[in-house]
């Protein structure tokens, strides 16, 4: 997947690619969800098609990921969701010991 990430980020400067594990209920060959963030609105379709074609070229005959290109608003929604998820997993400070 590093080849896919680096190729997309090199081809479209300014985008950030995030790969997350994914289990498709319909297709067991799909193992990753590839989010392509910070796409320009006019390039979203081009970026998505490029990622799909790249996946087919690298992993033929099966495509092991879903490509999801997102422009500004959808990038903000994704990042907000991830912030909420990480905030919930952070360890809180242990309670202070009371000395009596």
SSE arrangement:
Layout: H1 2-11, E1 16-21, E2 32-39, H2 44-59, E3 65-71, H3 72-89
Parallel strand pairs: 2-3
Antiparallel strand pairs: 1-2
Throw out a few tags for this protein.
GMP Synthetase, Chain A, domain 3, 44% helix, 3 strands, elongated, 100 residues, three-stranded mixed β-sheet, 21% strand, alpha+beta
* Oligomeric category: single chain
Give me the count of strands: 3
Strand order of the largest sheet: 1-2-3
As for the number of domains, it is 1
Assign the CATH class.
Answer: Alpha Beta
Largest sheet: 3 strands, mixed
> Structural class, please?
alpha+beta
Integer-rounded radius of gyration: 18 Å
Task: Specify the helix fraction band.
Answer: 40-55%
| Shape assignment | elongated
Overall mean pLDDT score? 89
What is the string of helix and strand elements? HEEHEH
Please state roughly what percent of the residues sit in beta strands, choosing from under 5%, 5-15%, 15-25%, 25-35%, 35-45% or over 45%. Answer: 15-25%
Distance between the termini: 56 Å
Number of helices: 3
Summary of the model, kept short:
With 100 residues, the chain is of the alpha+beta class. Helices cover 44% and strands 21% of the residues. The chain has helices at 2-11, 44-59, 72-89, and strands spanning 16-21, 32-39, 65-71.
Structure description:
This protein is of the alpha+beta class and 100 residues long. The chain has one domain: GMP Synthetase, Chain A, domain 3. Helix content is 44%, strand content 21%. It is built from 3 helices and 3 strands, in the order αββαβα. The protein has a 3-stranded mixed beta sheet. α2 (44-59) links the parallel β2 and β3. The longest helix has 18 residues, at 72-89. It is elongated. The protein starts with a helix and ends in an 11-residue tail after the last helix. The relative contact order is 0.17. The mean pLDDT is 89.
